[in-house]
Amino acid sequence: MSFHPNDVARRARTASFIAACIIGLLIAAFFRTQVLEQARYALQSEENRLREVPLPAPRGIIYDRNGLIIAENVPGYSVSILSPSADSLRTSLERLSGTISLSKDDIDIALRRYRRAPNRPTVVLADAKFDVVSVLEEHRVEFPGLIIQAAPKRFYPDSSAVASIVGYTGEITEDELKKPAYENYKSGQQVGKGGLERYYESQLRGREGTRFVEVDARGRVVREAGARQDIEPLGAEPLQTNIDLKLQEFVANIFGDSLQGGVVALDPVTGGVLALYSAPSFNPNRFVGGIPADYWRELTTDPRHPLYNKAIQGTYPPGSTWKLATAVLALEAGQVSMKQHMPTPCTGGYQYFNRYFKCWDHRGHGNLDLQGAIEKSCDVYFYQLGLTLGLEKLIAGGVSLKFRERTDIDLPSETRPIFPDAIRYYDERYGPRRWTRAVTLNLSIGQGENDQTVVNMARFYTALATDGRAAQPMIVKGTPKRQRIFSLTPDQMEGLRTAMAGVVAEGGTAAASRINGVILAGKTGSAQNAQDATRDHAWFVGFAPADNPKIVVAVMLEFGLHGSRAARIASAIIAQYLHQQTASLIQTEG
User: In angstroms, rounded to a whole number, what is the distance separating the alpha carbons of residues 106 and 111?
Assistant: First the structure.
């Protein structure tokens, strides 16, 4: 086959054009790579040889009202490993376990951390002891991916005394990382797990920094300093609270290891929480860096439930401390006066149709007025007062006094109290015609379908201590919030306070709890215990001085048997606080 010379020339030109196009494309690609995208590829190259090591930010320090430290940061150490794969990490950890104590669980936890964030150093020991760090430093050359660094460690100087307030910190979990509230968090970071640490997490966390280390192609650290300028962490601002740490310590010492229950002490005007304690408590310092399995097992199997905050989560029948609510509702409705007697005197019980309702004192109290009924805590008087009000008004009044609402204290997991919202509550709970109006008698003395938190009873008594306005409990300092929940005349308020002072006076149910030189006003209560009918819960809620209250204290003792025992504890707390205030005033004037 022959080719015409013109065909050969044409094909040569076509081939030359194609070659020129290919060369042009190659030149353009080289130009884009070497010139236009040089910065991007240089950055990728740098990122391939550099690894980010997080620098934890110091959490905000938490102070009490007088500047004493509730939570702070102390120097600590963390141990991490940079690894290119999970298999490589497992091999490194197994080798590491020959140098320091690492259990199979420790290795499994580290592998889960790696899978959540493979590009970050995997934390092996979040809170490494100094002797462990010393051993690892001696063997550092054997573990080229090992990173040992100083890290701020959370510390609570008063440990168990403040646990019910401050909570604790711990490593963020996989479930938490999925929640919107933690969208800017990364695996391995420490977060608040309870108390103020959790409630104010966004204010306490600070901003994490970054240190850059250089690694080789196998992910081994070849240079720890100077690879790139570090981004320094930024510590959070401190948190100022209303807590009186000395009073908090005093409360913890009173409860010791034998008593269990809850205490709340409030400033009646501002709602500032002066002390809040739940017994038994736990040591939040042992949670830092990961709670030991044996300690966690000890806490979770303890029948006294130390992790359950009895001051804000426990709900208990308020017993006779609720009689002041019945009295307030009847006075406000104009259906009783402080000097008014009931038709039937107390002879130890009250017959209501075919049922006999006992008074706590089987000997009877005789013919009392409202003031005397409060002082003696006469059940028979309040049975009749409740019937005078009627069930509808008693329920509606309880709702208006906030006995169905949380206090919105600035702590997580506050329990909502239990109280009927209307008559239908009984129909829904027991079924229509399966209950009688006898429920009124139980409700009027703080029993029956009425379970309150300690903090909610304290809130109600702030209204009794002032002018009918209840103060919202606040641990962290802020603008006080008060809400009127009832309206009584000055004479009626004075009458109630006189009656409550009579509770602690000679002949009252808490006479042994008197404070020398101070008039204490309050109310005892013994509430039926659903777990053990032979061991009642004991209550006392009160304030002092009666004519110008500075502190409201609510004490609830599980299995405390009688309110007088709770009254003695409340009296001691109040006396301690007033003594501290007097001493502080003298020191200031001096």
Answer: 9
Tell me the C-alpha distance between 206 and 60, whole Å: 7
Residues 428/430/434/438 CA torsion (nearest 10 deg): -100
How far is it, in rounded angstroms, from Cα 405 to Cα 203?
27
Phi, psi of 210 (to 5 degrees): -140, 135
> Which stretches within 82-158 are classed as H helix?
86-96, 104-116, 130-138
**CA 212 vs CA 48, 49, 50, 55, 561: distances in Å:** 12, 10, 6, 10, 62
Beta carbons of 279 and 454 less than 8 angstroms apart: no
| DSSP letter for each residue of 33-63 | IIIITHHHHHHHHHHHHEEEEEEPPPPPPEE
Q: Which two tokens stand for residue 254?
A: 């009173």
- Looking at residue 533, its pLDDT comes to 63
pLDDT tens digits for 123-181?
A: 888 888 888 899 888 887 888 788 888 889 999 999 999 999 999 999 888 899 889 98
Place of tokens 């709970």: 429
Residue where the block lists tokens 């996989």: 174
Half-sphere exposure of 310 (CA within 13 A, CB side): 21
Cα 576 to Cα 556: distance, rounded to the nearest angstrom: 18
Q: Tell me which residue of 395, 393, 391, 411 sits closest to 403, measured CA to CA.
A: 395
191, 288 contact by CB (below 8 A): no
Q: Are 210 and 55 in contact (CB under 8 A)?
A: yes
Q: Please state, in angstroms and rounded to a whole number, the distance separating the CA atoms of residues 328 and 342.
A: 16
| Partners of residue 361 on adjacent β-strands | none
Nearest CA-CA partner of 508 in 385, 325, 373: 373
pTM greater than 0.85: yes
C-alpha–C-alpha distance, residues 427 and 425, integer Å: 6
Model pLDDT for residues 527-573, shown as the tens digit of each residue:
877 766 667 899 999 999 999 999 999 999 998 777 789 999 999 99
Question: Helix, strand, or coil here: 199?
Answer: helix
- Distant-in-sequence, close-in-space partners of 425: CB < 8 Å, separation ≥ 6: 395, 449
Kindly give the parts of the chain with pLDDT less than 50: 39-47
For residue 265, give the H/E element and its range. Answer: strand 261-266
Q: Quick one: three-class SS letters along 571-587?
A: HHHHHHHHHHHHHHHHH
State the pLDDT at residue 45. 42
